[in-house]
Write a structure and sequence with these properties.
This protein is an alpha/beta fold. 32% of the residues lie in helices and 27% in strands. Strand 10 (186-192) and strand 11 (195-198) form a beta hairpin. Helix 1 runs parallel beside helix 7 and helix 4 (59-82) crosses helix 9 (335-352). The longest helix has 24 residues, at 59-82. The structure holds flavin-adenine dinucleotide and glycine.
Length: 373
């Protein structure tokens, strides 16, 4: 049972790479132990927000910016090919502080972002409330980030799955990969459902489960789950148009009038339960930001697992100690944002056998070097 490429994991990253490689003419098999795009990629808020989420100009920030730059073309192309609209919104975001310590933290953000020539504008309380009616008047500080966008990650996922199906990806659903097969220092395939499947390239896109295979540590860097709890609230259409961020809390308005609110950051293993304390912290922060949300109704609650590496950077590229094993995982808080650039770079790596310079800081080899030092 041969194919050109095997992809392990049917999240947004795995499905996106599989679709792109199949469109380039390769025979692609994708193994998903459950259903397609029902883990982190389904649980996310869909913010495309490097300025809000990252703390400095790092290689990861630059990768996020590059992905943001190509996002609109990515969703337009997806729409042309599938007629499914991922609901990309480009109204921008507000960064807010309601007390002095958080205002200080926000001031720091302003200084490095202005220094780097990024777009960020200080707003008076009145200006902020004009942009986001309903915002609490207790506001200490507000910034507008015109380049922070959002997408409906569940609709985006639907579009990506459709594209992968149209492009001829062979899906194996309910099929957990239990072993990565190697011979003479190279990857040769995988075992799933007690069957062997052969391929010279195996892409590990297994998200928070990416280190649970049969290879020794330096070949399989640690990826661990970080739980985030989420809520959808029902409000009136047009109630909010901008994403609002305050510390770890964010409110992401969808076009149907619902608002996705998150989140928590919890190290509780593979536990995806929603807890009273998690929801309590989300609700109280949401009401602090927009007091009238006390009257909103709760439509849905859920939790997802962010795939986190030891240095909180994604792992992207081929392992030099095990040719054929390619990583596309560890996207932690930014996998929806990083999807377009990840898909392009990994598809290029597979088809040209050349790794682009921009991937270098994210190589799986960095963990081997750390282990030796
Ligand atoms: P996943 O979507 O988790 O997919 C991995 C898949 O691999 C799963 O379907 C799993 O079943 C499968 N799998 C695992 N092991 C095996 C195996 N052995 N065999 C077969 N299949 C296997 N990012 C943003 O950019 N913006 C946001 O606003 C945002 N908000 C977030 C909010 C929350 C609460 C969470 C949890 C995440 C958020 N993220 C956000 C991060 C983003 O969701 C992730 O980085 C991204 O979805 C990771 O995608 P993935 O495909 O690698 O992983
Ligand atoms: N990027 C938002 C989150 O991970 O909660």
């Amino acid at each position: 049972m041969n194919s050109d490429v095997i992809v392990i994991g049917g999240g947004l990253i795995g499905c996106g790479i599989a679709a792109e490689l199949a469109r380039r003419g390769l025979k692609v098999r994708l193994f998903e132990r459950g259903q397609l795009i029902k883990e982190a990629s389904w649980a996310a808020a869909g913010m495309l927000a490097p300025q809000s989420e990252l703390k400095a100009i790092t290689p990861l920030f630059l990768l996020c910016q590059k992905s943001l730059e190509i996002y609109q073309d990515f969703v337009n192309k997806l729409y042309d090919l599938t007629k499914i609209d991922p609901c990309y919104r480009s109204e921008g975001a507000l960064q807010l502080a309601f007390d002095e310590p958080s205002a200080k933290a926000l001031e720091k953000k302003l200084s490095w972002q202005l220094g780097a020539g990024l777009k960020i504008e200080k707003l008076s309380s009145n200006e902020a409330i004009k942009l986001a009616p309903g915002l609490s008047s207790d506001l200490t500080l507000a910034y507008y980030l015109p380049n922070e966008h959002q997408v409906d990650n569940r609709k985006l996922s639907h579009a990506i799955i459709t594209l992968a199906e149209q492009s001829g990806v062979e899906f194996h659903l309910g099929a957990q990969v239990t072993e990565i097969l190697c011979k003479r220092g190279k990857v040769i395939g995988v075992v799933a459902n007690q069957e062997r499947y052969y391929s010279p390239k195996v892409i590990n896109a297994a998200g928070s489960w990416a280190s649970l295979f049969n290879l020794p540590k330096p070949l399989l860097p640690e990826v661990s789950p970080v739980r985030g709890q989420m809520v959808t609230l029902k409000t009136l259409v047009g109630y909010l148009n901008h994403t609002l961020h305050c510390g770890h809390t964010y409110l992401v308005p969808r076009w149907d009038g619902t608002i996705v609110v998150g989140s928590t950051t919890e190290h509780v293993g593979y536990n995806k339960q929603v807890t009273v304390s998690g929801l309590q912290s989300i609700f109280s922060q949401a009401q602090r930001i927009v007091p009238k949300l006390a009257e909103a109704t709760v439509v849905e609650t859920w939790a997802g697992l962010r795939p986190a590496t030891a240095d909180l950077q994604p792992i992207l590229g081929e392992h030099s100690l095990l040719p054929g094993l390619i990583f596309a995982t560890g996207h932690y808080r930014n996998g929806i944002l990083l999807a377009p650039i990840t898909i392009n770079l990994i598809a290029d790596l597979v088809t040209t056998e050349q790794s682009q310079e921009i991937l270098q800081p994210f190589s799986p080899d960095r963990f081997v070097l750390t282990a030796k030092a």
